[in-house]
Amino acid sequence: MSDDRLRALERAAQADPTDATAGHALAGALALAGERRRALLEHARLARLGSSESRATLDAWSPRPHAAATVAPRPALGARVRTRAVALPGAPLAARPVASDDHLLLPTRTRLVALAPGDLAERWSAPGQAWPLALRGDDVLHAGGPGLLLRDGGTGEVLGEVPIAGRVVALSTWSDRALVVHDAPGLRRVSAVDVGARPGRQLWSREWPAGALTLALLARQRAALLAVDRAEVVEVETGRTSAALALVPPRPRGARWERARAGDPRGVIVEEVTPDLALGPARCLLGERDLGRLEPRWRLERTAETMDLALGPGVLLLRRAGPGGAEVEVVDRATGEARFVPDLPPHLGFVWAEGAAYLLEAGSGAGALSLHDPRTLARAARHELAVGPDLVDADALPFADAVVVSLAHRDRTLIVRLETDG
To answer: Which of 13, 17, 19, 105 could cysteine-pair with 26, CB 3.0–4.6 Å?
Structure first.
């Protein structure tokens, strides 16, 4: 692609910003020329014009598990794998790692470390606190100083600063927009911020009393804001509330209360709890509402003392504990149909990919990454991992030809790459 041809396509796109055909021609040319950052910003502009093609491109740009996308379109590992491990002594993780196709980013307590996903070689590091963090295309956005820093994911070079008032406590991104949760004295604030052509431009901001907001997530061009008494769906560009649902907050001696338990780009899980006055297991009505108009899809009644949830691609993992012990179910998120999962081992969590659910099994001195059917959770294979007795957390990141597991210990981090052998 010649420079003259590229400039001609830029002029055509600028002459009529509503011409999606000219915009797509420019985005494709930028990608062919290796100008991925500029291509991302052009796709972001086209997505706001309504281009489904650009939305799909942006969805696939960094398909790693993070707040805005819980499913990575990656194949499953085989039954036989080869492994590579790298230890980072003195560098315990402070938050979950994030990754693009080319960068694996580890926020430790003292620095941000970037590894190459293929050979796990260190590419660069930057000192200081760097969490929360999220991806903007190939680049990384993270807390740093009075606000956020935007770095080149390949080199660590600082590309710009995004001023944010107060301490940043949560961050999610999609395209060239960020949803930032930040604190002020006695308040929790959520702001939608431009992290593209005009970094730091605030689109809108909302405030809640401290402790009232439970979850804020970015789902394409909408944001879900979940509080103790209300769930809202907000248009990211305008801040306009497109749907709202009032929740019954917990009250002393209250007979019934509700809470939003979890959410992702597909929907919000809402739980209605009726306590047992004899202090036995509570009666729980669990249901999902879509992330368009917050209309109900299904409801499921269960009795439990505690209930843990994990969202997957079209499924909900439900672990209930009661007087008779713990039970695990997989719920179809389209219909609410549930099936029990027998003999699921103690685990640190699931990560779903297109062809498998990866379960991180816990153990004393030995753990494993096991592969399961993503809808039934039937186990297909198991690969042992060296886990120390001081393991704090673990995470799995699926790539095109491998899965990289981070094992966070109290004084070090172990990174293990597993790829299909043959």
So the answer is: 13
